Amino acid sequence: MLSLIIFFLGTYWEAAMDKIASPHHYRLSTWHTLAAFFDRKGMHRLGESFWNNEIAWRNKWKNGDPSEGERFWGSSHIFASFTDGWHVVKLLWIFHFIAAIVFYSPIFPSILLDFGLYFFTLAVGHHIFFLYLQNKSWKKDIPHLFSNIFSNSKRIGGRIGEEVNKKKPHKQA
Length: 173
Known about the structure:
Layout: H1 2-21, H2 23-27, H3 30-40, H4 48-51, H5 53-56, H6 85-102, H7 111-133, H8 138-167
Helix pairs in contact: 1-6, 1-7
């Protein structure tokens, strides 16, 4: 069970990679807010040039130019994890994934059921973290997290009920 919890928490970083990688989602994310914070504080190395994936790739190269070579030895391969925000977040996701493997113990008798549970955990964790907790509007999005889930299930149940009622003719008294 500890493995499943670690894996769920790791999906935060997996969702963050998707937020940072997409220019549209990045601008709406807390990662953009974090970058702006560091830029306002004068810490530009941790600001937009670190978190904005469209320009952060240049951090691997001298003067941001691949033709001039690596910024430092290994900056374009083995130490790329420390050159921009996307790679740092990927490293954190990998750490969580490995920790989940190390602490894994079967939950169900069938490995296929465990696989299904972990896949479900990845999907749910990604959904929660990507759509709700990494948006700039996360404070107002949180209350809608569960209300959306339950309102959709009522609506679907209502449709099913309507279909059943259509098939059964009502006896008139």
